[in-house]
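Quick board copy: two proteins, each given as sequence then tokens.
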Amino acid sequence: DRDNFLNIVTVKTKIGGVSGSSEGKSLKDSTEFINVFSKNRERLFLNPVYQKTEVNEFIKNYEDSGKSWKYTQVLIDLGEKILLEEKDGFKYYHYPNAQMTSIVKFSQDQNLSKEIIYTEYSHKVYRTTNAQSSIRSKIIEDLYSIKNGIVSIEYIPQKGKNAGNLIEVFYNASNKDMFMFLSDMLIKEKNKYFYLQKVNTLWDDIQYNNLNKEGGYIDFKNGK
């Protein structure tokens, strides 16, 4: 049923051979495709699956690919926490004396390597984003007059990974850009820190040998 179609997944496979007659006339095929459907879109919930890479290895690969690593700031200390307002289940706070610095300066001041900072201090390492959301719009509208330090909003989300839990989200007071902490992207296993990336529609490291023997929910009689 087309109404239950979700995605097309591209799977990187072993490069197939090209017949002699096609040599030089076509590219070697190294992909296959999976059409993903749901039995019931209304009840569908996709459990997230993550790729794990040791964090400093991930950062090196990221920068080697020519991209600019965004988690370059450190929140040293929030300082005094001032309650500004409480309404409609939201609490607004101001941290006028918050101290922030760059990772480079923090590394120099504390005599720490970046590798140590990205792991042991990941809860202080952050980037900012101006991504639009209803919560950020509330911050911009309700706290427009505050331009110094950090502001925050404390509330209980109704959906998402933090649904039902009290959280506090931080923003630069000057432009209301939201803080994103590196620790939220990491998982610690056996004293190592791994960067998590959600699996998307390109599967380039999936083992699919004997995949036809997995699952058992749906029988593809002519599948392979």
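And the next:
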Amino acid sequence: MNSGKQQEKDPAGNPEQYIITIEYCPKCGWMLRAAYMAQELLTTFTGDIKGVLLVPSAVNGRYTISTNDTVVFHRKRENGFPEIKNLKQRIRDIVNPGKSLGHSDKATGV
């Protein structure tokens, strides 16, 4: 299914391989949170991403998630951590906009 957005190509003409980077503050004890999110993203986006890179930050309090040059989540700007459902939707919109996330795409009823 083509969503109208063409996947970018590398200089050799191959589809771009996305690497998701999670930069976290080790002094804050956020390594396990970063590892959990990495596991969720690797499981959900098998075949859509090249990998997830965990980077301990030298900046206290930092927790950012990016793919290639696009910041997907920034803890200080958003005043907290992302729900995994929301994070998967944000990543999906970049790496494979036509991908269904199953139950993560369903609206919550009130």
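Board note added afterward: The CA atoms of residues 56 and 64 lie 11 Å apart.
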